[in-house]
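Lab notebook, bench 4. We co-purified these components, and the gel suggests they stay together. Before we commit to crystallization screens, I want a quick structural picture of the whole thing.
Request: model the full complex, all chains together.
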Amino acid sequence: MKKKTLSALSPLSLSLVLVLAACSGGEDAAESSEADEVEVAGSDIEDATELTFWTFAGTHATFFANAADRWNEENPDNPIQLTAETYPFDQMHNNLLMALQSGSGAPDLADIELAKFSNFLRGDVQLEPLNDLIEPELDGFMEERLNIYAKDGNYYGAPTHLGASVVYYNTEIMDQAGVDIDSIETWDDYVEAGQTVVEATGKPMTTIADNWYGIWPYVVQKGSDFFDENGELTLDNEENIETLQFIDDLVNEYEIAELAPGGGYHSEEFYGFMNDGGQASLVIPMFYMKDFTTYMPDLEGKIQIRPMPTWSDSDIQTVTMGGTGTSVISQSENTDLAKEFLYFAKMSKEGNIQLWKELGFDPPRWDVWEDEEMREDNVYYQYFHDDIFDILLGIRDNVGGIQINEYTPDVLTEIDTNIMHNVLREQNQTPEEALKQSADTIRQKIGN
Amino acid sequence: MSGLDVNKSNNPSTLAPAKRENKMLRFLNSKKVAPYIFVFPFILSFSVLTLYPTIQAFIMSFQRILPGQVEFIGLQNYQRIFNQTFYKALANSTIFMLLTVLILVTVPIILAILLDSRLVKFKTFFRSALFIPALTSIVVAGVIFRLVFSESDQAIANQIVGFFGFDPIRWQFTAWSGMFLMVMMASWRWMGVNVLYFLAGLQNIPKELYESAEIDGANIYQRFTNVTLPFLKPIIIFVTTISIIGGFRVFEESYVIWQGTSPGNIGLTLVGMLYQQGIQQNDMGFGAAIGVILLILIFVVSIIYLLLTGAFKRGDE
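Here is the predicted assembly.
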């Protein structure tokens, strides 16, 4: 009887092996294809042209829906009905890639995040160049930001913010240590101030994320990058090794920095730590203002924004980091209208002012920074201080831009998984060893 | 045949259509055709959803795939695979597979026997309590696991560790604890399902065998090894096989904890690498090549296992 059961089982097991082995990941897809949230603007207007917009940030969906309402007020003869769909981060980018690959199913407009953007610039680019909208007003834009979303002289993305990296100082802690934040001008000053802070308060001067936020801004500020203008990999060049050595020293030599709780600056753990006055300063782009006002209410009135300290061998005072580009997809049946609307929503002066007013982002057009509307009181001025844009205007000529190409995602993955972890956390590789090893891995891929 | 005759005599006017219908029915009911009709829905869905993608994956693994530019590049994708990252992923998947097979076969047997015994009360409650994790969304479970096992010394797991006098552990950042988290999550999730398989298996064991064993003086342990285990063998083989396959295919457990990039690749699995390279980094040809290697790997390991356990032998051999 036992043997009978066994023999009855064998064809079953065999076919099972075949079926299960063949369909990897079929049984329970962790992600569904439904959007988390859908906002529709202009649904009550007859004959409105339908446009679809995909994003991964609910706030961006609301921003575009509001823009569509304003568009419809100003263009009653050419109304649009905008459907803004919000998906989880990975899923949105994956779906968009698949839609572009297969040639159907893509929206008219989509948000593409910086670290993902170069994926969409490979092969025959499926995004519409925005040059005719940008070039007439190029002077008003911070070009460093536009170049991030560009390839072969074509601009493919409308920036959401400049993303200028700055230092947020917790004045409560700095005062306790008796350090004047305006006296910190170079990174040497910063280290010195950090030692005073640690001595006086026992709290770290800063924390380092073990992802690219913990290295990229510093590297670019030093005048280097992971790729040069010709697209050659420079990940393991002298400047970058020195920079990573400096970061490593902050943590393991001077001991004025710790690793960010939770590993990065966008985790619940980190928000709680920062909100409780866990560290004296934080180096991160301007867009983080929104995180402060949303997740760290206890720090209201205690945070001062200042430019990054400088390196002795470079003039660059700030670096554009992070950020999302909105693109018009070539598959769209209404590319012209989509482009016009995109200009209206994000690239015009009015749109840039709305980026600040609604989202708290530093607009990528510097020609609005002095606009009166920008200076109207809002939650950010109340939480921080009044001269936010004066600081930006002061460093406008010393902005470092980043070089992006199709292998950028590989570099960022290496940084997130190997480099920061091995050098800072495990300390089992020197900066030079880690950077060289990762660079070799990526060169191997580029060579193929 | 008789039905046709009745029709003929009673109502000649409907003769023609009835005849055709019956011919059709007879054709469909014939011993040669009927089996194919019954398996047709499966064959159809298998071909469209499994066979076609599998063949396509083989083809894609020899291609470089970009929007508007698809070209054959021979074995280049395969030549690139065998690097350190791949071996790391292979090691992680293999360790995960071995651990989950060990845990998800032994523990469910014990639990199933307990749930089947007369000594345990509230059986239905325990049975559903064990099964519910299988119905939970893995994403939600991942959020909870991340919070429970976060780095902070106030997190539940570290509180427990601290209670026993140990330092807080950075669960998501070291290799052993990362593997521990993945295995624990998988065990928690699939325990109930495997218990069900074994419970079903236990129902098939004739009670008389236990009685006669008892009369012969067998103790509990002897009854377990000489009656229960042999009868459960087919189920054990089945559960082990699906655990081997599931173990090599692990992805969600790693993804919900680290979202694709784990420090030092401590959570990188083969399917995780496929996802990272193929989809996140838009290199689908390379991803497909990893998939093909994984398919071959699972096939070979499973066949070896089934051969060793004798699952292919005929009943009378």
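Confidence is low (pLDDT under 50) at residues 1-10 of chain B. Worth comparing against the SEC data before the next meeting. The two ends of chain B are 45 Å apart (CA to CA).
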